[in-house]
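Changelog-adjacent note: as of this version, every example in the card shows the full chain rather than a window. The one below runs 240 residues end to end.
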Amino acid sequence: MERFRVEVLAQTANPQQVIYAAMHQDYTDGFVYDERDRFPSEEKCGEIIVNRLLAGNRGHFGCLEHPQIVFNCGYFPHSVMQQARTHRVGVSFDVQSYRYTGMQVIDVADGKKDVEDVFYLRPVGDYTDRQGKKYHYSAQQRQADLEWCVEAAKRYKADFKAGMSEEHARGKVPFDYRQHFVVSFNLRSLLHFLDLRYKKDAQLEIQKLCELMFPHLEAWTPAIAQWYKENRLGKARLSP
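Full-length structure tokens:
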């Protein structure tokens, strides 16, 4: 999991002031654009949003849909991408396709690229399945699985060199090949995504995705992130 990365490509500037402007327009007869030089500070806007929209679980999340943030997420297994797109999360994805990027598999077969840069296996350790059964994933098992990944890459190369299309040959590669993706959220949809996936019974790897997203949320909307951490994080209160 040390290879996993989440970086911000773009984000709405002064997001808490944007939310404040939307909220303020709901109950003022003025045109809020003309008041922008008199808006409270970004920090103060965060306090107002928490007190007027979020505190007491009031559920007024509509104004949070205006600010946008775009993440570039890297080196996550395909299973994370599948989970991330499950349920109605209201986000947009662009995902690395193995129809166009399969040469990296051939690079593994040729020894030009580290197998773990292309395929993901969980670390050695103790795990529990969904029914509560405990098991140990040993170093020996993991090494055997890495060797199997290399053999699968060699089969992919052989098929591709024999004329098979990329989308056909990729059926031979392990399910959890790594994928990079770009994903955009509005603030409400990001909080909803964290509700779904930043909880203890979520898949381990998607929990890590949320863990890497969260510091960016804290830097972007600190007051809202702090409120979320204290009131919703890990509690699976869905669909804000």
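Structural remarks: The longest helix spans residues 139-161.
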